[in-house]
Amino acid sequence: MFGCLVAGRLVQTAAQQVAEDKFVFDLPDYESINHVVVFMLGTVPFPEGMGGSVYFSYPDSNGIPVWQLLGFVTNGKPSAIFKISGLKSGEGSQHPFGAMNIVRTPSVAQIGISVELLDSLAQQTPVGSAAVSSVDSFTQAQMTPNPSEMFIPANVVLKWYENFQRRLAQNPFFWKT
Questions:
Q1: In the chain, count of helices (H) and strands (E)?
Q2: Rounded distance between C-alpha atoms, residue 129 and residue 150, angstroms
Q3: How is the chain split into domains, by residue range?
Q4: What is the dihedral of CA 140, 143, 149, 151, to 10 degrees?
Q5: Which residues pair with 40 in a beta bridge?
Q6: What angle do CA 98, 82, 91 make, to 5 degrees?
Q7: Nearest-5° angle of CA 60, CA 24, CA 49?
Q8: pLDDT digit string (tens) for 8-56?
């Protein structure tokens, strides 16, 4: 149902199911992780009106797990990138994983996903420093010209494609001549 990705590591798709509605991924050597991607595999959607809260857990100096809410995934938002590098020194938050005996080792952090009502997800406040990373868009003015490269305006490519489709509809073999 879920996947977890850390740069430079293999994709994890076999979450450990610790309750009917709770799943965890182990993150060994978590101190070297800056960002984590959590995504739905597309094989099983959430039931209607449900989504998944995404939590990060790391052991504190006493080995006790500290859970922090990162955000959520839903059928309408099936993936998210979270920055976790600054979370290791933060405070924990309320979480649904407290009463569970999840097997863990001291140097392993975890990503937890709790399936919950969408109304409940909307009322939760993720840790501020875990803000979902975003990619800034750029404009043509920001593109540095390179004399050895030629840029073609998107509208020219679109017009070519529309003409190609029209000609293909008229004669499927036009391109062979």
A1: 2, 8
A2: 41
A3: 2-130
A4: -10
A5: 2
A6: 45
A7: 120
A8: 889 999 999 999 999 999 998 888 888 999 999 988 999 999 999 999 9
